[in-house]
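Quick start: what a row looks like.
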Amino acid sequence: MSDSNVSIKEFKKVPPGCTVILGFPGTGMAGSISSEFIIHKKDFEQVGHIRSPKLPAVAIVRRSKPQAPVRIYHKGKTVMVVADVMIPDNLCHDFAEVLVKWIKLQKPKEVIILGGIENKDQKHKNYVVSWKAKYLDTIKLDHMKLGFVVGIYGPLMMELMENNLPGYLILTEAQRGPDPKAAAVIVRHVAERIKMQIDPSSLEKEAEKKLGTPKVEGKSWDPYPSIYG
């Protein structure tokens, strides 16, 4: 699927009815780190990527192989889209439109967007924003009553709302710079939501070390050099 700016290349089709999780860089890199953690802990399979000439001219190198900076993964009833780069402002609307069109074709159970919001008291509280009242009524997170959501998150929510797709945005308070503690908070919420056993304690230990680089020990987390620090 493509338009003049954004193209989605699928290596393998995913089954309909999955929960689609979107993780993008933001405050604390919370959305990206939590997504990568889940993908590697649970051995998700890469099934596609998203390209655009307006994205930063970079390739991610892992295990000596290049990867696109925005990738699509799948396992069971979950699809994850993770970005290692910020989506430029002049691309956000086109990117969101193409991505949501693709998501709609998958007939998703729901869409969960992962992100961070700046916090100064280190409480790492979760906030929920949704275009569907049922999520505000049932998800036991604090509501973001008033504020701005900048970058790709805004266009994504508007496209999802206009396409009448169910879902919500979770924003976790995070520090500037890579914040593995914020990522761990998101992982715990996602694990409960999709009913998948994922232990983020290694992220929490990393935060305690205050190394500023979310490298995670363990067989399922590939110890390639982190791009987050």
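That is the whole record. Residues 131 and 200 are 29 Å apart (CA to CA). The chain has six helices and eleven strands.
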